[in-house]
Amino acid sequence: MNAVLITGATGKQGGSLIRTLISRKSPLEILAVTRDPSSASAQRLKQLSSNIKLVEGNLDNPADIFRNARAQTSSPIWGVFSVQVAIGSNVDEEVQGKKLVDEALKQNVKYFVYSSVDRGGERSWDNPTDVPHFLRKHHIEHHLVDKARGSGMD
C-alpha cells in the first residue's frame, strides 16, 4: 500500500480530500497532518477509516512532519497534498510551501499536488499578480516545477 501525506487535514481542503478518498475506497494509507492529533477535529477525522493515521506536524518544519509520518507507516510516502494557511495568519506561506517541496523531494515522493489559485486562466503561469497572497502561491508553484524537473517527481 502507498501512503499520501495530506496537510490541512482538519481544514476544508485537506479534510475534503480525505473524505473523498475514503468515500471512493481508495487503497491509499492517509497520513493526515495536524498540529494537534488530540484535538476533537483530528479525532473525528481518524474515526472515518482505519486507513487514516494522524501525523503531528507544523509546516514550519517539514523534516519533522516526514519523520513523524514515517513513524506511523511502513508504506512508502507516494504523494503529498499541500495547502498552507495564509490570509490572517502570522505564517510565511511561501517559506512553508517551498520547504515542504524541498523535503518531499529529499524523501523521494513521487507526486506532489499543490493547492494554489488561478491568476488569469491560460496566462496564470506567467501572471504573478499584485495580490500578495496570490504572488506567494505563484512563487511556490514555480519553485515546485523548477525543483521537480528531472527529479522523478510528477
From TrEMBL:
<dbReference type="InterPro" id="IPR036291">
    <property type="entry name" value="NAD(P)-bd_dom_sf"/>
</dbReference>
<comment type="similarity">
    <text>Belongs to the NmrA-type oxidoreductase family.</text>
</comment>
<dbReference type="Pfam" id="PF05368">
    <property type="entry name" value="NmrA"/>
</dbReference>
<feature type="domain" description="NmrA-like">
    <location>
        <begin position="3"/>
        <end position="144"/>
    </location>
</feature>
<keyword id="KW-0521">NADP</keyword>
<protein>
    <recommendedName>
        <fullName>NmrA-like domain-containing protein</fullName>
    </recommendedName>
</protein>
<dbReference type="GO" id="GO:0005634">
    <property type="term" value="C:nucleus"/>
</dbReference>
<dbReference type="InterPro" id="IPR051164">
    <property type="entry name" value="NmrA-like_oxidored"/>
</dbReference>
<dbReference type="InterPro" id="IPR008030">
    <property type="entry name" value="NmrA-like"/>
</dbReference>
